Structures are given as C-alpha cells and as structure tokens.
Structure prediction request, 207 residues.
Amino acid sequence: MWFFSSLYFRRSPCGFSTAAQQRSTGDECGPEDPHDEPKHPLSDCALEHKAIKLEEQVRDLTERYRKALADSENVRRRTQKFVEDAKLFGIQSFCRDLVEVADILEKTAESAAEEAEPSNPNPTLKKIYEGLSLIEAKLQSVFAKHGLQKMNPVGGKYDPYDHEIVCHVPAEGMQPGTIALVTQDGYKLHGRTIRHALVGVAVESQE
Prediction:
C-alpha cells in the first residue's frame, strides 16, 4: 500500500508542477544582468552645456567656410586679372620694338618732305614722300587698333610716369613746368606707358 502511494506521488502532475515552480523560483532569484540596468539620463545642465559647445563649433565652421569662400574668390579674381593682362600686354615687348620702326619711318618721311619742296621739280621724290606718309598713317592706325597710342605731351604738364626730361628751354609764352618740345615720341599700350617721351620742359629765363 505504501509502495503504490509513493509511486502515485512521483507520477502526480503536482509533483512535476512543484519542481517546475522551484526551478522557476530559482531562476527568478538568480543574479540580475548588469547590462539590463537602466541608464541615467543626462541632466538639463549637461545638455545645455553640450548644446552651447555645438553652437560654438557650428559658428566656427561657418566662419571658416566664409573665409575659405572669400579667399577662393580673391584667387579667382587675381587669376582672371592676370589672364586679362596677359592678353592685353602680351605684345608689350613687340610693341617696344615696333615703335622704333615707326621712329625711323617718321624721320625718313620728314627728310623726304624737306627734299620734296616746291622748288624741287623731282616727281619721283614727291611720290616717295607721299608713299611714306601713307605708310606712316596706316601704321598709326594699326597701332590704335591694338591699343598702342602715341603721346602728344606738348603744352601739357610734365609727368614723371610718362615723360623723361632731356633739356630745359626758356618759357617764352608758356607756363614754367610745361612741356615745350619732344625729341622722341612716347607710347602707351592700353593706357600703360611702354616708352617714355623724351621732352624739353619750359623754365623761367634768368636775366
């Protein structure tokens, strides 16, 4: 009788239920996972401090970005100016050499004009003078087309950036300091002096 009662208890669902409950209870009483502990949120003061630092960083980056843009624009403008100047003044050395040819042509035309006076009936010399005059006029026209212009300083004020004094002349009917004569023409290329004019400046006569 006792044997069957023990066997029945062992097979009873209550026995299994009690063991399961013990296991469940043992699991619940075990140590908790430290990773499951709730994290403490940042305080309002810490969040405000962090927001201020982020705003400062944004302002700093914005200022750096603006400076970088300004520097880039300055470089672009300088590069563009350099390219434009190269286009305008790339022929500067060539123009300096060419105006010397114009000087020779002008002097030759003046010499031919002196020889081709009305008293000299030589028609060939007259035609040479006319041809030289046409060439000189055409050359000056080509100069003007490319921005090369001859200075006409007579009667104007002396400017050290455009003129070079080679002599002084008495100021007869002219204001002292004005240019009375030109011994060599000066030229400008797009407003920039590429050859100074050699001039004589009027001064007060000393009695």
